[in-house]
Write a structure and sequence with these properties.
Blueprint (H helix, E strand, L loop, with lengths): L1 E5 L4 H10 L6 E7 L7 H4 L12 E2 L8 E4 L5 H4 L1 H6 L3 E4 L9 H8 L12 E3 L2 H8 L4 E3 L3 H15 L9 E6 L14 H4 L4 E2 L8 H12 L6 E6 L6 E8 L6 H12 L5 E3 L8 H4 L5 E8 L4 E8 L3 H15 L16
Parallel strand pairs: 1-2, 1-4, 2-3, 4-5, 5-7, 6-7, 8-10, 12-13
Antiparallel strand pairs: 8-11, 9-10, 11-14, 13-14
Helix pairs in contact: 1-12, 7-9
Length: 342
């Protein structure tokens, strides 16, 4: 397959290249950049020195491709979607342009009128463990955000079965600094982040409508949540701790059985043995996700914890997983590495 990447010099673009180089069915035919066209990729990421990664090409010169990964700021992929589909490519968007099914909600949260609202209905939300059949045969895949991936893997199986009270959901999540991207900013400056932890995007983070959209879909009616993300002084990782009241008669064993039934045949989602709680290090550098739960009988709340790598299962690895689904390849092709420890 001839594969192209737009936004190849960002963290998710680099992670796509790292993983795709291990994929036996892929030719990296195009690495696009709007800022450093003409440069050898190894001058941007010297750890790839003498590995023949390729030369960066202007993002206006698209060749014919089978797959185009778009790791771009919101608004750009949607604005060029006709062009991208015109080169014969299936488009996997790692940005936000096709995650939300409502152009009005997109405009509300991203302060931008959607450039191509007619194409929203052509896209599919690309979380394979939940929507594998819907992904097959599509030409536009909206790769989920990192926080939503951890949250939805935890909640959707229970909400589909009516085991939790949807109006009681609270999501407390932490992310490594790489989730903010490679661009420098005061908020991610070493002196600001080191030995510090902070909440951000409180009650207004842009992953909120994405989470609410998909859990509403699972519950069968509109749901709103409290979602608060935090920045942690580490490079990679998402740890989401989620609280929700259990419905009458639902026990911890019922929830655990529900997860196990859902994920028993999934190679990337792991329900840990009772008493072992997920750590971000479990998933570091891999496409794996780890889940654990308990029910606090004093409060009647389930407490769910999910851990994954925000750049892999939360971004580039999941995008490759979606590509494998689109082309009827083994879903783990190119993705079967385990996390790095310590």
């Amino acid at each position: 397959m001839k594969v192209g990447i737009l936004g190849a010099t960002g963290y998710t673009g680099q992670e796509l290249i790292r993983l795709l180089r291990q994929h036996p069915d892929v030719e990296l035919a195009y690495l696009g950049s709007s800022s450093v066209a003409g440069s050898d990729y190894e001058t941007i990421y010297p750890h790839l020195y003498e590995q023949s990664t390729g030369t960066l090409i202007a993002d206006t010169d698209l060749p014919d491709l089978d797959v185009l990964f778009c790791a771009l700021p919101h608004g750009i992929t949607a604005g060029r979607i006709r062009e991208f589909l015109g080169v014969g490519a299936k488009v996997i968007d790692l940005g936000a342009d096709f995650r939300l099914v409502s152009a009005e909600v997109y405009q509300q949260w991203y302060n931008l009128e959607h450039p191509e609202p007619d194409f929203i209905k052509e896209a599919v939300y690309g979380l394979p463990e939940l929507y594998r059949k819907e992904i097959q045969g599509k030409s536009i895949v909206a790769n989920p955000g990192c926080y939503p991936t951890a949250t939805l893997l935890s909640l959707v199986p229970f909400l589909r079965k009516g085991m939790l009270r949807p109006d009681s959901i609270i999501i407390d999540a932490k992310s490594g600094v790489s989730g903010a991207g490679r661009g420098a900013s005061m908020g991610t400056h070493y002196s600001e982040v080191n030995e510090n932890i902070k909440a951000y995007g409180v009650a207004q983070h842009r992953h909120t409508p994405e989470i609410e959209q998909e859990i509403s879909r699972a519950a069968g009616h509109p749901v709103v949540v409290n979602f608060t993300p935090h920045l942690i002084p580490m490079t990679r990782g998402i740890l989401a701790t989620i609280y929700a009241e259990v419905c009458d008669g639902v026990e911890e064993a019922d929830l655990r059985t529900c997860w196990q039934d859902k994920y028993i045949n999934e190679q990337f989602v792991h329900v840990l043995p009772k008493g072992i709680w997920p750590q971000t290090k479990f998933a570091y550098g891999s496409n794996q996700a780890f889940l654990q739960l308990t029910v606090d009988k004093r409060t009647g709340r389930a407490i769910m914890v999910a851990a994954l790598d925000n750049l892999v299962k939360g971004a580039s690895g999941q995008a490759i997983q979606n590509m494998n689904v689109l082309f009827n390849l083994p879903e783990g092709r190119g993705l079967m590495s385990t996390g790095i420890w310590p």
